[in-house]
Sequence to fold (628 residues):
Amino acid sequence: MPPGEPLLRPDWVVNNLDVIGERLAEHLGMTATAVGVGFVISFVLALLIRRRRALHATVVGAAGILYAIPSLALFAFLIPFSGISFVTAEIALVSYTLLILVRNILLGLDSVPSDVLEAADGMGYTSRQRLWRVELPIALPIIVAGLRIATVTTIGLVTVTSLIGQGGLGYLIVVAGINAFFPTAIYVGALLSVALAVAADALLLAVQRRLTPWSAARGETS
Amino acid sequence: MTTAAPDDRSTVAARGQPTDTPASTTGAVVELDHVTKRYGPPGTPPAVNELSLTIPAGEICVLVGPSGCGKTTTMKMINRLVEPTSGRLTIDGRDVMQLSPVDLRRQIGYVIQQVGLFPHMTVGDNTGVVPRLLRWPEARIRERVEELLDLVGLEAAAYRDRYPSELSGGERQRVGVARALAADPPVMLMDEPFGAVDPIRRDRLQNEFLRLQSRVRKTIVFVTHDVDEAIKMADRIAILQRGGILAQYDTPDAILSHPANEFVERFVGADRGLKRLSLARVRDLELIRPVLVRAGTDRTDARRELQASAIGFALLVDDGGRPLGWIRDTDVDEQGPIDPEQATPGASLIEPETTLRDALSTMLASSVQLGAVVDQNERVVGLISVDQISEVLQSGNLPGSTDATG
Ligand SMILES: Nc1ncnc2c1ncn2[C@@H]1O[C@H](COP(=O)(O)OP(=O)(O)OP(=O)(O)O)[C@@H](O)[C@H]1O
Ligand SMILES: [Mg+2]
Fold:
């Protein structure tokens, strides 16, 4: 760090609002893509596991291993296939969401009381109708809880992808901040990343509350 | 006014007869023909064994028996939640195994033991589930939901938008019943539908349900392990023994008066004579003409009336004919108007619909072994005595039960 450099230079922030905004948008886009794709894959996996319980150990085990691989190693492993690219970054980010999402979708579906399932069958729901109209709505709070954890985790991980030329707010932290010995950029990147995580978490919670008024009703009376 | 009208009964046997209700609300015949269910491989003891039952259209058949005797299994084979190992089940002659399970279930109302309301749906949406599956137009569903909530005694405006978690246990069970009735199914399966409520509320729900059934006339398979509930609700009772063996299938009266074997005898209890009294109602008895004395009457007049009557008690009534208490001749020795304070309280109110068993308990609890029978305005219409009921017990002939075995 050059001597005399202040920790925070407001004028830099003001002059670079467009760059900061761009990186924020990029960060948001990478997170949404990763969580969105991760959710679709996890949903399909969870449904497969439900149909064949034997797959449970294999799928959750594999997702656990993916989750445990350090991100740097994962990038190194992927670069020969997909280069230093957005795709490489997203593959890594998506893999990290799978464990949390698969587990929470399964937990959510398993949380549906057996008497409710029996009632649904007894009323004459087809198995598809039962899934979409009974099981998933009831599982929603637990599924959204998983989405919240996955989203917050991903928002943190996106910064690391700056190592392969992506990174959203991570660009501010690593390239503009650490590499250039410029603390202001580090603070701005880190603060915005945290704020984004908090906001995304609150937003998802608000959406879930809106979608499941019945679970609030339960909370009030019990 | 002192004679009961034996023909306007709506008890047991009379309920089963087809009436002028529209065809859409009349039940279907349910028939089980040598039905066996084994959950394990061949050779394991069956949960239901060679069970044959014919449930006439519009009747309530109560399955009763000790825990694990196969009641739920039997019921679930009717809507194919459980598939029989062997044997045939038909509804109005159609083999259930030939129907698609989904279509079959949409035509059978199902009340499960633990209620099983959908927690994420409002009371209104829970009730409208089957009509929605059957793709009724929304306006018709809304109308039907309102009608059903009304039918089960829940005011639609107050309950329609609540969630199950905001209801009491009894209210949930009513919603469960409304949901099962929604598409007007000819057959209803009810697995201990009132099991989760306290005895007083259960009694009310039972009465409401019987009133409802007298209007809708479904074919109902009703599971309970409470003998009293079985006697009260049933047109016919099927008593199952462990291993899903049918011990007896008959009307409550026949089961109580002629238990088929020792198991049935033990199961219905040593007090089956008393229990049988629940099958007849006060209106089936010949009422005794009461001596009525209005409050404020002169004692001399009252004394004269009392002496002219064979019963030792007069009933003091208010201006509306409502009973205030009993007066005996020693209370009217002197002169002057009768003071209501003198009356012996405990002129317990008995209604024509009260069962003989309940009437007997009421009378035994009071110091005077008579009961004042009142109409819906609480006006006295006649008296009954403990002696009348003992006579029924001793003779074994229930009043007005000539067609009970039909
Ligand atoms: N899905 C199942 N798999 C294996 N055995 C079962 C299954 N369901 C029931 N059984 C067995 O079949 C027998 C009859 O069970 P069922 O549930 O029909 O009894 P029940 O008369 O309804 O009892 P309860 O009064 O306790 O509800 C029991 O021995 C039970 O353990
Ligand atoms: Mg059972």
